Amino acid sequence: MREILKHQPISKAALAKKLHVGHSTVVQLLRPLIDRKIVVESMFGDSTGGRPPKLLSMNPDAAYGIVVDLSGHKIRVALMNCVLNVVAVSRLNAESDIYSTLESIVNLCNQLKEQTNGSRILGLCVAISGVMDPATGKISSSLIEGLENVRLVDYLREKLNLPIAVENDANLSALGEFMKMEKDMNNMFYIHMGEGLGGGLIIDRAIFRGDRGYAGEIGKILYDSQTFRTVGDVYSQLSRSSSHSEDEIVRLLSTIVLNVVSILDVVNFVVGGTAFDINERLLSKVEAEVKRHFYGFDVEVRKSKKDPDAMLTGAMEYLIENVLTNL
Hints:
The protein has helices spanning 2-7, 12-19, 23-35, 98-114, 152-160, 169-180, 231-240, 246-264, 280-293, 310-322; strands at 10-11, 39-44, 54-58, 64-70, 74-81, 86-93, 121-128, 131-132, 139-140, 164-168, 188-193, 197-203, 206-207, 222-224, 229-230, 268-272, 300-303. The protein is of the alpha/beta class. The protein folds into three domains: 2-58, Orthogonal Bundle (Arc Repressor Mutant, subunit A); 64-171 and 309-326, ATPase, nucleotide binding domain (Nucleotidyltransferase, domain 5); 183-303, Nucleotidyltransferase, domain 5, CATH 3.30.420. The strands form five sheets. Strands 6-5-4-7-10 form a five-stranded mixed β-sheet, with helices on both faces. A five-stranded mixed β-sheet has the order 13-12-11-16-17. It has a three-stranded antiparallel β-sheet with strand order 1-3-2. Strand 8 and strand 9 form a beta hairpin. Helix 6 crosses helix 10 and helix 8 (246-264) packs across helix 9 (280-293). It is globular. It starts with a helix and ends in a 5-residue tail after the last helix. 37% of the residues are buried.
């Protein structure tokens, strides 16, 4: 399903080649998806001498999902379809009382549910800035005051009667950026520079969380051993300052990328967020700096494209992978 989403419309032969399996295996895997109208044979492709192949696409109306961006104080609630397009989106600001904020979110979710005209809703995926403990359901180190005291999954499931997924915002953005990549790759690292600094890691085409869910917490990387300043310390200082230089941003990003490359040998990086004015010239300097310090090897560091939104895209893809395929 992911390969169809990334490359649609696509033939069965091309899909088999991308998945490194035989044509008969693809046909077998597709049969239940086509029977349930999740995947449709939408048109004919170009003939290579025989009968033109039927091309496969995801059915946008097969199901919908609701996505909540709870990563900062400006909250978004979006209704999305099965081809990762935003159908409708509402916005609100976080209130001082966390339960008032959550009640407003629930109200918006119910309004969006009505726009599906009774079509299947896969569930709700919430993007948060912290990490949720799977044993207790509690969230750690969130930017939203009071959220760490809420069993968010239980609260939302009771209010909305839907499957609920909660995932780190940078992880979902990494998945969304991976879905937007035109070239095929297995590994990628996403750097988020927003209200806070975060990172999301894709390894072997899937989110990598580590043993406790903290993989990608680049704010704890050591920046200066003499003063024991971390990357997060420097990021906070620069984001509060109105007089930071481009060289300071280059050094910060170079430190992050060089550490990630040294441990994981990831080649592809994406930088997102709105905290700084990131441009191609700045990222070229980062690439050159990393190449100078890492055996002369190239890395590719590019800026996230605003459209489609990586976090919303990743959250809906997360619902498709974890809910739709299990229905």
